[in-house]
Every structure is written in C-alpha cells, then in structure tokens.
UniProtKB/TrEMBL annotation, chain A:
InterPro entries: G_SEPTIN_dom (IPR030379), P-loop_NTPase (IPR027417), Septin (IPR016491), Septin2 (IPR008113). This is Septin 2. The keyword Cell division applies. The gene is SEPTIN2. GO terms for cellular component: actin cytoskeleton; axoneme; cell surface; ciliary membrane; cleavage furrow; intercellular bridge; midbody; nucleoplasm. It comes from Anser brachyrhynchus (Pink-footed goose). Residues 33-294 form the Septin-type G domain. Belongs to the TRAFAC class TrmE-Era-EngA-EngB-Septin-like GTPase superfamily. Septin GTPase family. The lineage of its organism: Eukaryota, Metazoa, Chordata, Craniata, Vertebrata. GO terms for biological process: cell division; cilium assembly; regulation of L-glutamate import across plasma membrane; regulation of protein localization; smoothened signaling pathway. It is found in: Cell projection, Cilium membrane; Cleavage furrow; Cytoplasm, Cytoskeleton, Spindle; Midbody.
From TrEMBL, chain B:
It is found in: Cytoplasm. Residues 1-10 have a biased composition (Basic and acidic residues). Residues 58-331 form the Septin-type G domain. This is Neuronal-specific septin-3. The keyword Repressor does not apply. Signal peptide: none annotated. It comes from Anser brachyrhynchus. The keyword ATP-binding does not apply. It holds the Pfam family Septin.
Length: 336, 350
C-alpha cells in the first residue's frame, strides 16, 4: 500500500469493507474547514478570555457597532482545530430608564442574521456562505432581587423562539451557597411558570461512558449557572488565578466550589455542535418558513439584471431572425 | 441474496486500518475523572469529536452508478467492493429477458453496517448501455436520471417546510467500465465520459484486467490516460477541486499513476497459502482479487471507500449539484423552481 502510514490489507478482517472509516474522513475535512460559532451575551460584559484561557491570539475587527450591539470575532486554534468565535455583546442593555427599545435592537440583530443567511442560501453562488446566525445567547440575570424581573421575562419570551437561551446568574460572589440554591430554584420555577423555553441539554446517550453521563447530569442539575467573571490575575495559594480580591478572601473564577464558571464553559464547548444544530434545524427553519409564507422579495439580487439581459437577448435574436428572413444573410450562425 | 449486516468483529484491528495521512490530533474526549477533575480542561477539538459521533449515529447515504457494456463484470465488481450481494448479476440473457432496447436505469438500495456506521447504499445499474447496434445518444437516459435526482433534491430544498435530512438520491460516483481491448478507448467511451464528466464524478475502470499481462496493462493505462487528457475529460478526482497542497499531491499521484484502475472482481473464495481469498480460478493459476500484484481492485476499493467516500459526496453536493441548481435558477429568472407548496403561497401573496 503506497499511502504513507498504515498498511490497509494487513491484517485484513474478512468481510471488512472499510466504510467504517467514513467518520475519520469527515473528521479530517472538518478539521480542515474549521468551525464557526456565534455567542450573544445579554446583560453583562462577558470576559471572553476567561472562557477561552490564553488562546485568544488575536482579536479581529469589531464588525458592527450600533448603539446597542457590538460584535467581535476571534479565531482560535487548538491542536489543529480552528474555531471562529463571534461574540455579540449588548452593552447598555437594561440600563436605560425605558428599556423597550434595547430589546428591539437585539431582536432585529438576530433576525437580520437569519435574513442574511436565508438570502445567501437562496443565492446563485453558495460556495462560501458565512454563518453569522446567533447560536447561543447567555442571558445574565441579576443576583439582586428575588428572581426574574419583568424585563427578563419579556425579553426571554421575545427571543426564545429565535435563539437558544442559556440563563446565567451574574455576580455569584454576592450570594452565599444557600442563597444561590434558593435563587436558582426560584428562577427555574418562574421560567416554567411563564412558559419560557430555554436551551435543554440533551441527555447523554446510553452508549456514552459513565464519566460523560455523570458530567451531563451535573451540568443539567446546575442550571441556571451562577458565575463570577474576572480578568484580573490574583495571587492565591502560591499561584496566579483569575479572581476577585476581597478583604476576606479571593473568589477564584475557575474554582468549581466558588462558582459555576467551569460548568458554563464545559457546557458551551461540549454542546457547541448541538447548539448549532438546534439553531439550524429549529430556530432557523421556523424563521425561514414564516418568512417564505409571508412572501416578499428575498430573491437573488441579480434577478432584475438577469431579466433585462434576457430581454436584450430576445430582442437581438428577433432582429437576427428578421435579417435572415429578409435577405439570405450571412448566417454565420453565431449564437449569442 | 443479501448477506446481512457485517459485524465489526475486531475493534482493535479496525482502528489499525484507519488511514492516517496526517497525524490526527489527540483528543481528550471526556474529562479526566470525576469530582474535582470532572470539569477539567475541555479542549475545542472536542467539537470535532461531537461531529464525528453525530456522523456515526446518523448514518449516511451513498449512491454508486455502474456503466458499461454487459458482460464486463459490473455487478460482480460492485458486490466485491461491498462484500455483499448488493447487485444482482445478470447471468446472460435468457429467453424471457431480452437485451433492453434502450438503456434502463435500475436502482437497488441496501442498508449495510460496519463498525457502528450505517450506510444506505444504492447501486444504480444501467443495463442496455452500449449493447445496441446503434448506440447513438445512449448516455442520454443516464444524464436524464442524474439530473432528475438533482431536481428532486432541489425541490426539497426550496420547500417551505423542509425535512431535517433531505433524502439524498444523487449519484455520488459513476464507475465507467472500459473494455480491456488493449488498444484504445472506443468512441462510445469518449462520448459518454465527455458528456457525463460535467454532471457527475466519473471513475474509469478497466474491467476484466486479468486478460492483460503486466506490460499490456501498463501500456493500455498510459494510452487511456493520454486519450482522456487529449479529449479534455476530467475524471474524478478533478484537478480543479483539489482543496490544498496536500490533496493535490495525493490526487496527482492517483491521477497520473494509478488511474484508471485495472480491476478484477469475484465473489468466490479459494484457499491460497492457507488463507481464504476472493479470486478467479483458471487452469494456470488463481487470480487473487485483493492481491495488489495481481490487479488493482484493492486500490479502487481503498480509493472509493476508505479515503475518498466523503469527498465524492462533497464534490457531488458542492460542485455538481450547485452547478445544476445555478443553471435552474438562471433559467427561471433567479427564482427557485416552484413546488406545489410554494405555488400555493405565491398565488395567495399576489
């Protein structure tokens, strides 16, 4: 076997065809292609560096900056796998006296990405469609107060059919463990009460190993995640950790006993593919079918130009016909 | 009859057979341990693992078409490729079955499983191709069939309520069987491949290669390659679709040295040197199908199934299907073709 590496035919299991190798072929192509993911953060400035450790090699351009939306893209590579992560930030959400408008902007943003994708998908040249659709939304809930605020409920209900919502409780360090448990339960009850659809982690399949099943159970039991964010490196117990320094101690971001940050991170990464799929198969398809039912123009932009070209061609052909009919003409037979 | 699902017996042996043209990243698929380490560092590369697991669970479709004159061993070859009776051999024409007057298209589907991966394999046979006295335009029914599958897929894609997984009946690979005359390609071969290489992935194979000696084989292959080049026939893997340098190097070697594969097919087993092998028994020796010194069947199999299966599907989807789609949209003035559903909505929106 000439291929550098393994020898296929030895040992040959009789009856082995080899298409079981397909997942490896898919793997190889996926690694080459890389992965795109868009994460929206509402209600709190997320610290991306915390989620992605020190791999953020370069922060690419800030794509858009409207009054309330800031999108920036980062390319991360790890062990040959490329991830293009876009974080959509919503500064100022909830700060205004009248917050009606802030969530309109956010909803328009989400819809715009769907619209753009629909347009690209319906276009003539589909080779390089960029997927900027929002795959996941971290919605930050304030730890002060006794659960969801009216704004929280309104907003989540307005977007739960458009994006996967992951509710997160911010500033976990202002709550004791007991207070956290109480708040989590309260929030879950209110979510159910108001019929808000949040993202559900799929159960681990029966053929997964015990570790993975346990991990999934742990994650599911901790929702909504209660996190602390920090960009500061503090000296604690002889090493540098990300955390917040208080007179009474250091809150470590990555200490699972201090807050759920690691769980949030794990959930995001182990479910990236699923989040994308639900966005594509559920939220996007809903948008698309609604959009198509409404009709209107989303056809290829070149359509009008095309029609004009076709009319021109028809006219030219008619002219040629006439010429050929009137005289013998030198029908050089050039077909336009 | 169909042999039934192939069981993956030896997992360890299976993983050895995985080709590694590039070092696969070591993937920490799961966290290191329970409790404190349960949420240990999870790398981004696990995303790719997730996709891989998904592929395994969903299974996949593969549609392979065989074209060539009758008697060139097409069915046997396909059965040998998939180690199952996926294609019914025509053991000569009996009195009831006549040679079809036009080319027929016969698609037969099977579900086979291996190593936890399920494949819905469809073999599309084209009896009657090249068998008439006048074979003019006999490729037309084949081209029509291929385009019909593209059309079917397109209609599904533009539906308002789309299926989550559109059933894929498009032809991913067309094996074209060249008769081992030893001289050159016939005009029919050239005509067929010229027309069809624009709409489907064509892999030319030299059938019944056991009728040629090694020297004759080498010469014939060179001549065929030259003729294909001179006639501008781009067979799979097409040069213009090489994605990067790595692909190009690998594919150049295949295009310029290995193809067209000179193959022999068989579904009979014989005992050779204590092993059971697939082969053809002749008075002068046993031709071992999977022996690379005897014929190139193993190369064809590895190429189509073990390394380029996914690529065949991707080129079909991203290139051939898109070309068809663009043309259809253009012809329709930039609009997608109407299905019954979209037509209704169009009416109600006017």
């Amino acid at each position: 076997d000439q291929r550098g590496g393994e020898n296929f035919t030895n040992p040959e299991t009789p009856g082995y065809v080899g298409f079981a190798n397909l997942p490896n072929q898919v793997h190889r192509k996926s690694v080459k292609k890389g992965f795109e993911f868009t994460l929206m953060v509402v209600g709190k400035k997320i610290l991306i560096n915390s989620i992605l450790k020190d791999q953020v090699s370069c922060l690419l351009e800030k794509i858009e900056r409207t009054v309330q939306i800031e999108a920036s893209t980062v390319e991360i590579e790890e062990r040959g796998v490329k991830l293009r992560l876009t974080v959509v930030d919503t500064p100022g959400y909830g700060d205004a006296i009248n917050c009606r408008d802030c969530f309109k902007t956010i909803i328009s943003y989400i819809d715009e990405q769907f619209e753009r994708y629909l347009h690209d998908e319906s276009g003539l040249n589909r080779r390089h469609i960029i997927d900027n659709r929002v795959h996941c939304c971290f919605y930050f809930i304030s730890p002060f107060g006794h659960g969801l605020k009216p704004l929280d409920v309104e907003f989540m209900k307005a977007i739960h059919n458009k994006v996967n919502i992951v509710p997160v409780i911010a500033k976990a360090d202002t709550l004791s463990l007991k207070e956290r448990e109480r708040l989590k339960k309260r929030i879950l009850d209110e979510i159910e009460e108001h019929g808000i659809k949040i993202y559900h982690l799929p159960d681990a399949e029966s053929d997964e190993d015990e570790d993975f099943k346990e991990q999934t159970r742990l994650l599911k039991a901790s929702i909504p995640f209660c996190v602390v964010g920090s960009n500061q490196l503090i000296e604690a117990k002889g090493k540098k950790v990300r955390g917040r320094l208080y007179p009474w101690g250091v809150v470590e971001v990555e200490n699972p006993e201090h807050n759920d940050f690691l769980k949030l991170r794990t959930m995001l990464i182990t479910h990236m593919q699923d989040l994308q799929e639900v966005t594509q198969d559920l939220h996007y398809e809903n948008f698309r079918s609604e959009r198509l039912k409404r009709g209107g123009r989303f056809v290829v932009a070149a359509k009008d130009r095309l029609r004009r070209m076709q009319e021109m061609i028809a006219r030219m052909q008619a002219q040629m016909q006439m010429q050929m009919q009137s005289g013998e003409g030198d029908s050089s037979g050039h077909h336009v | 009859m169909f042999k039934g699902p192939v069981e993956s017996k030896n997992e360890a042996a299976m993983s050895e057979l995985v080709p590694e043209p590039r070092q696969k990243p070591v993937v920490p698929m799961k966290p290191m341990g329970i409790n404190a380490n349960l949420l240990g560092y999870i790398g981004i590369d696990t995303i790719i693992e997730q996709m891989r697991k998904k592929t395994m669970k969903t299974g996949f479709d593969f549609n392979i078409m065989v074209v060539g004159q009758s008697g060139l061993g097409k069915s046997t070859l396909v059965n040998t490729l998939f180690k199952s009776q996926v294609s019914r051999k025509s053991s000569g024409w009996n009195r009831e079955e006549k040679i079809p007057k036009t080319v027929e298209i016969k698609a037969i589907g099977h579900v086979i499983e291996e190593g936890g991966v399920k494949m819905k394999l469809t073999v599309i046979d084209t009896p009657g191709f090249g068998d008439q006295i006048n074979n003019e335009n006999c490729w037309e029914p084949i081209e029509k069939y291929i385009n019909e599958q593209y059309e079917k897929f397109l209609k599904e894609e533009v539906n308002i309520a789309r299926k989550k997984r559109i059933p894929d009946t498009r032809v991913h690979c067309c094996l074209y069987f060249i008769s081992p005359t030893g001289h050159s390609l016939r005009p029919l071969d050239l005509e067929f491949m010229k027309h069809l290489s624009k709409v489907v992935n064509i892999i030319p194979v030299i059938a019944k290669a056991d009728t040629m000696t090694l020297e004759e084989k080498i010469e014939f292959k060179q001549r065929v390659r030259k003729e294909l080049e001179v006639n501008g026939i781009e067979f799979y893997p097409q040069k213009e679709f090489d994605e990067d340098l790595e692909d190009k190097t690998e594919n150049d070697k295949i295009r310029q040295e290995s193809m067209p594969f000179a193959v022999v097919g068989s579904d009979k087993e014989y005992q050779v040197n204590g092993k059971r092998v697939l082969g053809r028994k002749t008075p002068w020796g046993i031709i071992e199908v999977e022996n690379l010194t005897h014929c190139e069947f193993a190369l064809l199999r590895d190429f189509v199934i073990r390394t380029h299966l996914q690529d065949l599907k991707e080129v079909t989807h991203n290139i051939h299907y898109e070309t068809y789609r663009a043309k259809r949209l253009n012809d329709n003035g930039g609009l997608p073709p109407m299905t019954a559903e979209t037509e209704e909505n169009h009416e109600s929106n006017l």
